[in-house]
Amino acid sequence: MNDKIKPAHQVGPVSAFFIPQTMQIGIGYLSFQHVVTKYSQQDAWLAALISGAIILGILWVVLRLLENERQFGMPDLFSIHSRIFGRRIGTFLNLFTVTHILLFTIMFLRSYVEIVHVWVFPQMSTFLFSLIFCSIVWYIVSGGIRTITGVCLLSFIYLMPLSILTLFIVPHAQFANLQPFFDHSPVTLLKSCYKLTHEYLGFELLLYIYPFISHPREARKWAFRSVLTTIYFYTTALILAIVYFSQGEMQNTIWPTVTYWKGVRFPLVEHIDIIAIVLLLWSLVPNICLCSWIIARAVKFTVPKIKMKYSLIVILALIIAGTTMIHSGLQVKKINDVYATYGALIIYIYLPILLFCQWIKKKCGRGAAS
Amino acid sequence: MFWKNSKKKNDQGPAQPSKSMADLLIQLETNPDFNHFCHNSKTLTCWISFINTVVDLEYIHRDLLPALYSERVQRMKDIAQVVPVDKLIETRDLSVIQTSLLDGCLMIQPSKRSQHVYLIPCPKKQARQVEQTEIETSIVGAHDAFVESLETNINLIRSRIPIPQFKVEEHRIGKLSRTRISILYIEGLANKANLNTTKQRITDLETVSVINANMLALMIADNSWSFFPQFIDTERPDRVSGALYEGKIAVLVDGSPSALILPSTIVEFFSTIDDYSLTWPIASLYRLLRLFAVAFSVISSSLYVAVLTYHYQLVPKDLLATLIVSRSSVPYDPIIEVLLLEVMIELLREAGARLPTKVGQTIGIVGGIVIGTASVQAGVTSNILLIIIAMSALAAFITPNYRMATTIRFMRFPFIFAAQVFGLLGVGLCFMFFVCHLLKLTSLGRPFIEPIYPMRVTDLKDSFIRLPTSAQGQRPMFLRTADKNRVNLQRTTQKKGKPKPDIDE
């Protein structure tokens, strides 16, 4: 693998806004209100803010890690691993983090199929859909990081109407639902925060794409802005859900967002939910593209002989196989939980430890030099 | 794509170049239109030859021959002084002789087989007069269109760009045809890299002949597997000169009444010259109308298939009644119905385009009214579908560029099939594929959907909307021109003067 990324393959600093943004807001946006309000009912929006603040801290850790690494070569997680822990343990750690990404793609794709099964086509073949979808993904990823970033940007643009759509429930809102304020103990709030991890995950992918972003100083600002935007989206969605549903109804609604899309009516079309679910393809595609690109890069980092264009086919086949193997909604839920726990482990525990290791290594290196 | 990779220089002349003067003359003498005769006068003996179908005979008989026959010509060298021509070529190079003879030169030799010759250019070009635009008509703009003659076309452009920096470079492409191709640009404006890429792509072409500009556009396209045209072709000289002033490059082909503009972005295919004559809000609205028309034309029939096959919940209750009434007598699935009408419209369009204008009109009436109404009355298709299909056919041809319009006409078919397989989800997947394809496309190495991705907010000023001229002070960023500004920004701000502090002060 080359040490330097050619400027022709780099993307602008604004992509540090669009990429984490599209990675974070995904399929979870449809159902997270149901999960989060379980512990801290009407105060859940507070949990979204607290959780967001923690994520901003983790983002700082991520960017710190990358910036410290810049002087030693490529600022990405693979290089950090192999520099601090050596080639062998580094490869193992890469495997550890990349497995999470693979899990993410499978979870995401299968959750989408699950939603399509429930709301649009109960009989749709999971295999056929993922095959067609993954061939489009192959076509995009073969265009390189620039095309993938383009897809991220377009995804942001195309999903904008959906966030406007939520405004339609404001006339039906019962703002009294928000009261009483601050009625929950910090423990229950933290439990909600933990549940929200699943939704905020995705920004850590910056660890892999950072060397491809030009003007890192500006990019860092954009990365923070992106997480702030995500916090805004989640908090408003939560508040709107709380004022629209009663707590009892919320606990029985698996996809609150889709349910209130269903309530929106236009003179020419009804059932906006179906259109919105189809539009959500645009949330799916950048995620799968970027993740399979990262996994292909990991393969190339470990075994430089294998070209990305060939390993990509194997990876996509793995994703299709993984997606097809999950059969029921319960399994989807389970894999979502596994993914969230795994992700929480990585961002809350592993990344700070890694930053600490990097600091130790720096101290040791300096000690050895002097 | 072999032509793209092969880096051979295209400088071997036409196939089997003649070995000597004698061979060339023998080869040519078999043609009845080749004149080769000896001129004998008191003072000079010489051989004169020309091909009478490519030279201007009147000019030869009226001006050249009398001067040549006059007694002032004593030796071959006197020809230059006596004969009233601006350019007299003296050469021994056989390949030059051959191409000039075939291009319409008069050849004068001292003896029958001598290779030392004088060539006097007197070509005659059969060309149309400059006429009204037919493909890209404009209501308030200029009305002249390009013709088949390269000289006339360059004249039309040069009269609009009267500056010495305007450069015309000529290349001869085609192993046999040796077609003249001109690359036009304004020096100091056009991006050097773009210019070099254009030149390289054109000179590297390995081809037998170049018939017209659109064929050349296909040959030098970035992705020849794509069905989107990647360079704009236009028959309007004012559009070309506008593009040149913007910093783009134009390519003209001899014998072709259209010019190519390189590089292009997709939004430029949907802009017309009239947009610049209207006030900016109106022009912007028309552009948005075109955008809507394209979206409607591509998606409407596939949405019909998807909604009626799978998602009838989407249709509001009141409309549903109308749909049921209109479809109750139709025995087929929506897809059969849609394909039937779509193919019919395509047939009508093709027949109308191939037939002479007067018959074409009849075809339109027969097709549109008779077949349409009859098919509804016979219960083969539904009324509503007929409206949708007719409207989408209309919408497709709102696109000002013909080649883009045909692409848009074609694009609906994958959508229809996808809608049949996966319903709305299929339409979404198909749309995603097309968008990603556009995302990967480049035009001369520049991104094809430029103002959207890479996101350049400043270039949006002349894309889906057109801002007023005062906001168009800078050239498009995407062209990377050598001179960024159209106007002197310092001077314009000075002229504006101080900003007013408040109302009435």
From TrEMBL, chain A:
Compartments it resides in: Membrane
Record keyword Transmembrane present: yes
Main location as per UniProt: membrane
Domain of life, source organism: Bacteria
Annotated TM spans: 12-32, 44-66, 92-113, 119-141, 148-169, 189-210, 222-245, 274-296, 308-327, 339-360
Pfam family, one: Spore_permease
Keywords from the named record: Germination, Membrane, Transmembrane, Transmembrane helix, Transport
InterPro entries tied to this protein: Spore_GerAB (IPR004761)
Membrane topology classification: Multi-pass membrane protein
Family: Belongs to the amino acid-polyamine-organocation (APC) superfamily. Spore germination protein (SGP) (TC 2.A.3.9) family.
Protein name per Swiss-Prot or TrEMBL: Spore gernimation protein
Taxonomic source organism: Sporolactobacillus terrae
Lineage: Bacteria, Bacillati, Bacillota, Bacilli, Bacillales
